[in-house]
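Appendix B. Chain record.
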Amino acid sequence: MTLHSWLLAIRPRTLPAAIGPLLLGNVLALVDGTFSALVGACSMLCGVLLQIGVNLANDYFDFKSGVDTDERLGPVRVTQSGLLSPTAVRNGMVLSLLLAIAVGLYLIYVGGAVVAGLAVFAVLGALCYSGGPYPLASHGLGEVAAFVFFGLVAVVGSYYTQVQDTTVTVWLLASTMGLFNSAIMLVNNTRDISTDSKAGKRTLAVRLGQQQSRLLYSTLLALPYLTIMLMFLLGQLPGLVVLLGFISVPMARVLAKEFVQTEGAALNPLLGRTAKLTMVYSVLLSLGLPLSQLA
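Structure tokens predicted for this chain:
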């Protein structure tokens, strides 16, 4: 039971899925004139703890359900490989979620009933993604869950906690983060089409097949840029923000091209690179929003 094993379990490369949206939500609050550094730090910590909890739950529940086997193509799963015991991973999941709730209590104190509702929704989502009587990931809803929790809930929730309100701009930018995070999930599920099919796990990629999944991936990467361009044309987003956001377009184009030409275990590097694209996009927009106020 080593530190290396736990690092494999929490999957640090996936954490940008939580960090990017929360960064953007807090920066949106900052430029709108209502911001607390403590609230921002707590929302970031809470989001990361929830992401770790989701990763551990995925590792644990997929082992218990028999989804993870020796044929697995993705990165090492610590429970299936025997690096950590099922009990240790389950306890780690529970600890992560309890710590997230503990930090979240302060956010509930600040944000009130709406944030409390979001907190309950987020914890249930973490548990129901791979576990429970109707695991979302096994019924083609993994990408939808990523869009909702790591897009809408993360951005709008962090913004609301700071400002006690929302705007159309916040919701639209939250949707762009959700689309990128759905793309991350789609890479994972497309890689596992063959093994998930054998295990009876009906992910969206299994339902669509390899070719349609490739088309969907390209669409998910393109829609955020189309959205921010439309927001600019409608006067909801400064041009500087859009220009900075478009700096990441070449990264997205390369990923879309490689995804079409890749399958199976060879998709593993694209998983981390799609998460990196998500983070780069978030940072670029988060820089552009305050800079546009100075221009």
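Further analysis of this model is presented in Appendix C.
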